[in-house]
Every structure is written in C-alpha cells, then in structure tokens.
Amino acid sequence: MSLPDWVEPVARYMFQEGLRGTLRIAVISVVASTVIGVALGTLLTTRFWPTRTLIRFYVEVWRGLPIIVTLFMIFFLGPVIGNQLEFDPFTAATIGLTLWGSAQVAEATRGAVQSIPREQHEAASALGFGWVGRHVYVILPQALRRLIPPLVSLLVGIILNSTLAQVIGANELLESAERSVERLAAPPPSGIFEIHAIEIYGAVMVVFFLICFPLTRLAAYLERKLVA
Amino acid sequence: MILAVTYDLWSYVSENWEPLLRGLGRTLLVSGIAIVGAFVIGAVLGAARAHRVPVVSQLAAVYVEVVRNTPILVQIFFLYFGLADPIGPWPGIKLDIFTVAWLSVMIWGGAFNTENFRAGFEAVPHRFREAGLALGFSRTATFFNITLPIGGRIALPSSINTYIAVLKNTALLYVISYEELTTVALQVNALTLETAETFTVLAVVYLTLVWSLSIAIRQLESRLALPEER
C-alpha cells in the first residue's frame, strides 16, 4: 500500500515548520517556568508576609485564568499599554505559558521546600549560611528530588498547551496542520480540492501522543520512585 | 490616529453588558452540561477501572490516555473540522456547534474524572467491601452503598479541580466561534477597541468563578471528609 501523493509534502512541512515551532515554544517556556517558579516558590516560604501575599496573588491569577485568555491579554493588551510591549505570536505565547508554568512550579516548590525538616534549616544556619546560601546549597538540592515528577508533568502540560499559540497565529504544529488542510482543500493548481482534515488532525494527535505518553509514564514512575 | 486612551470601565460595562452576560450564560451552560457528563463518565468508567471489568476497563484506559496525552485544542479541531464537517467523509455525523462545544469539553473532563474516581475507589479499604459482602449485600449493592459514597468522597477534591479545568477550557471554544464569554468579549473588543476594559472584565469574571469554586472545594472538603479523618 502506498501513500497518496499529498502526504509527503504535508508531513515534511508539518515536521520542519510546525514541530520546530512547537518545540521552540515548549523548551523556552519550560526552562523559564522552572527558573522563575523555583525562585518564587522558595520565596513563598519566607516569613515576610508582603512578599508571600504578592507571590500568592501572582500564582493564583496565572493559574486561575484560562491560558488562552492570558495569551490574548499579552497579545492584544500589550501594544495598547506601550509600544515596547508589542510581541510577535511566538514571544507572546512563550510569555503566557511561562506565566502559567511558573505559577505551577512555584506551588510545587513551596510544597517541596516545606517538606524538608526544620533541622536542615537549623543545621545550615548553625554552619553560618545566610538565607540565600541555606536555600541554594542545603534546602533546594534536597527539595529537588520531590520536584522532579511535577517538573516532568509541567513539561507535558506545556507541550500540550503550546498548541494555544495557534490561536494567536504562531506557526506551531496545529497551525501548520490547519494551513495544510486549507491548502489541500483549495482548487488546483495550489491545492487538490480534497478535504483531509480527519487524517491531518488525527496525525497531529498521534504526534502529541507519542511525545507526551512516555513523559506521563516517566512522571508516574519517578513519583513512585523518588517521592514515596 | 489616537485610539482609546481613556479607561472607563463603567461605560464599557453599561454599554456592553447584554452580549457579555449572554456569553457568560453560554459559558456556564456548556460547563454545566459538561460537568454533569464528566461526573457520570468518571463514576462509571472509574468503577470499571477500579474493579477491572474486562474489556470496558481496557477501553477506558485507552480513552483516558489518549485524551490526557493530546492537546484539547487539537481534539476540538478534530471533532469540529474533522468529524463534524458537513462535506467531510462522514456527512452522516451532523454535529452542530453547540453539540461540539459541550461534547468536546465533556470528553476531556470525563477522561480526567475517570482517573480521579479510579483512584478514589481504589483507595477504599478492602475490608469495607468485604464487610459489605459478608453482610449479604450483592456486589452491586456493595458498590452503591459502600464503594461509591466513600470512594466518591475521596475523589471529590480532585474531581472538583477537574470541573474547574472544564470551566476554564470552555474559553477554547473561541476557535470554533462558539459564542461563550471569551468569544463575545473579543467580538466586543473588535467593535469598541476598548481592549483594557475587555480584559479587565474577562479576568474579573474568570477569576471570580475559579476562585469561588476553589474556596468551595475547601469548604466541601472539610464538610465531607471521612469521619476518621476529621
């Protein structure tokens, strides 16, 4: 059985343009979310309440809003506020996913840091570490163990949610799929006047499944191994 | 050209409250249908998973994994632009926009809820079921009188989190132009160009809904907590 002629160029376009766009958004968002989220989550455990309230507000807002509303907000509201806040779709999507992701990581980090026994803090203080040194060298390395499973889940969440960038027009996997469907549906010479929406969107689901299913399994495995 | 430089939330709301309220109504309607559906799917398939009912359990596992590991946006595209396309390969399946709207978020919520309920039912101590069977309850009666009330309570916090996520996911119905809150708000924005006011309203409404549901969870959690955990 040989594949129809339209499959090969469409697949190549979706992998070269679309999948690359998806991975670009996902990788930057995951790294930024982790760095910002761990910092904010650690600060959520301080005794100084104004800091805590402020970060708590940040976490609840970006976790509470539908991510799509956050993306629209950055994309449409940014330029209204100031010219330097005018972002291209890729940047807007990355910022939006980072706001959401860092809120998730902050909450997970708070739990992980608080799970470290008080004696560790006391021992570090006794050795002369300040607040920063105590957390960077003593507490966080231990908390990291509990943080790895939620970070893998975050990776899955960000990969799945990176499709939202399609709505504001970034050329990621779903957008490249939609363009392909529309192109094939066009009359010749640009298209072939056929509708292949089921095959193409089905293929997108398969690609996401192949990426995300192993990661979900990995997160569950690490959860059993590292946390229990 | 100078666009709206003034910020006047009050006149924005007083001029546009009607479409926005209709949008909010549709958001709540679709969420409501989807949440009820997700509860039923979750309870039935969760029970099948927990009790390892042959065939049903395996099919439910596939359903859960497929939905959880693919983006909901692609699921909506697949349903609406793929299956429901009137000139597509299956013109027999006629799904109107409203059906796709509640169905897509219900399928998503049902999959997450199946996991919530499975975990809840499996957390019911084995001795409780044995006690029920020993008292002469049939297996079905044991499920309805023991596993469901206890396991359902254990699953309650996580399933309410799923319902909150269902509510938030209705915003994605923007992509099929279903006129729920987000779609309507962006339509109003396109007409009035009052972007700051539009997003103030959107953020306030969504955060009010989500935060009040989260607070409700905590209330309900302490009230429905199992006696031995109080």
Concise description?
Helices cover 78% and strands 0% of the residues of chain A.
Instruction: Note poorly predicted spans of chain B.
Output: none
Shape category of chain A: elongated
Query: What is the tally of beta strands of chain A?
Result: 0
Over the alpha carbons, how many angstroms does the gyration radius of chain B reach? 22 Å
Give the tally of β-strands of chain B.
0
Count of the separate structural domains of chain A: 1
Question: What does this protein look like?
Answer:
- The complex is a heterodimer of chains A (228) and B (230).
- Chain A is mainly α and 228 residues long.
- Chain A has helices spanning 7-43, 49-64, 67-81, 89-114, 118-126, 131-161, 173-185, 197-227.
- Chain B contains 8 helices and no strands.
- In chain B, 76% of the residues lie in helices and 0% in strands.
- Chain B has one domain (9-224): MetI-like (MetI-like fold, Orthogonal Bundle), CATH 1.10.3720.10.
- Chain B is flat, with a radius of gyration of 22 Å.
- The longest helix of chain B is centred in the first third of the chain and has 42 residues, at 9-50.
- With 230 residues, chain B is mainly α.
Q: What are the main properties of this structure?
A:
heterodimer; A: mainly alpha; MetI-like fold; 78% helix; elongated; B: 230 residues; mainly alpha; 8 helices; flat
Task: Please specify the SSE layout and strand pairing.
The complex is a heterodimer of chains A (228) and B (230).
Chain A: H1 7-43, H2 49-64, H3 67-81, H4 89-114, H5 118-126, H6 131-161, H7 173-185, H8 197-227
Helix pairs in contact in A: 1-4, 1-6, 1-7, 2-4, 3-4, 4-6, 5-6, 6-8, 7-8
Chain B: H1 9-50, H2 56-68, H3 72-83, H4 97-122, H5 126-134, H6 139-169, H7 181-192, H8 195-224
